Amino acid sequence: MGTPLTSEANSLERLLEEDKLVLDGFTRGCFAETPLHISAMLGHLEFKRNISSQTPVFAKELDFRRISPLLLATANGHLEVVKALLLVNPDMCYAQDGYGQSPLHIAVIKGRVDVLKELVQTKPEAVLLRTERGETIVHLCVKHYQIDALEFLVETNKESGFINSKNEDGSTVLHLALADREIEV
Q1: DSSP H or E run through 107
Q2: What share of the chain is helix, strand, coil (3-state, %, to 5)?
Q3: Taking Cα atoms as reference points, which of 75, 1, 92 lies closest to residue 41?
Q4: DSSP secondary structure letter of residue 59
Q5: Does a structural domain hold residue 175?
Q6: Which of 42, 94, 112, 151 is the most buried (most CB within 10 A)?
Q7: Could you tell me if 45 and 81 are in contact, meaning their C-beta atoms sit under 8 angstroms apart?
Q8: pLDDT, tens only, 52-73
Q9: Based on C-alpha coordinates, what's the Rg of the chain?
Q10: What is residue 84's DSSP assignment?
Q11: What are the ANK repeat spans here (predicted)?
């Protein structure tokens, strides 16, 4: 007997056989989220594969909050879905939501170090993106007490100099760590 997920994927295939245009409304912006947003959020890898093969444009669609399927999969720690989405469109590592947060920022905030490693491996230069408040990924590591993520980023980006970047308040990571006194320097 198949799993519920297999059943959903099979249902999608049957629906697409009956009506090739069933996904068309989503590509024209008639809905807040695409089916790929929902499958990425829930971690439905097989369902995601079926949707991506039918409508690859969904991988770069942003919902009404400017959130991509990659960001949703990242936030929920669905590593296999993240890997699959990166194969479809690796440039989505640069997509930022309404707060200027990229999938890498969200991976740090949520402590998804395994996902962060995959994102950095795919697009290493995406670590330089800043939020709308001018925070770098290392600022977010300190702010959200994500020491494992900080260690990984410092180790893999020794030459970039972004560790000394200042946020919009003029604070470096060291300033934040000392001000909070929660992290050993």
Answers
A1: helix 103-109
A2: 60, 0, 40
A3: 75
A4: G
A5: yes
A6: 112
A7: yes
A8: 554 455 557 766 777 788 988 8
A9: 18
A10: H
A11: 99-121
Number of domains in the chain: 1
Rounded-to-integer distance, Cα 57 and Cα 122, Å: 19
Q: Give the total residue count for the chain.
A: 185
* Structure token pair of residue 125: 């230069």
Q: Which residues are CB-neighbours of 5 under 8 A, at least 6 positions away?
A: 44, 45, 46, 47
For the chain, strand residue ranges (E) read none
Res 18: pLDDT:
54
C-alpha pair distances (Å), 176 with each of 71, 135, 165, 166, 184: 26, 11, 12, 10, 11
**Nearest alpha-carbon partner for 81 in 49, 124, 53:** 49
Kindly compute the dihedral angle of the four CA atoms of residues 23, 25, 30, 33, in this order, to the nearest 10 degrees: 0
Poorest-pLDDT segment among 17-26, 100-109, 122-131, 165-174: 17-26
Type of residue numbered 56: P
Which two tokens mark 112?
């998804």
24 token code pair? 């068309």
185 within a domain of the structure (yes/no): no
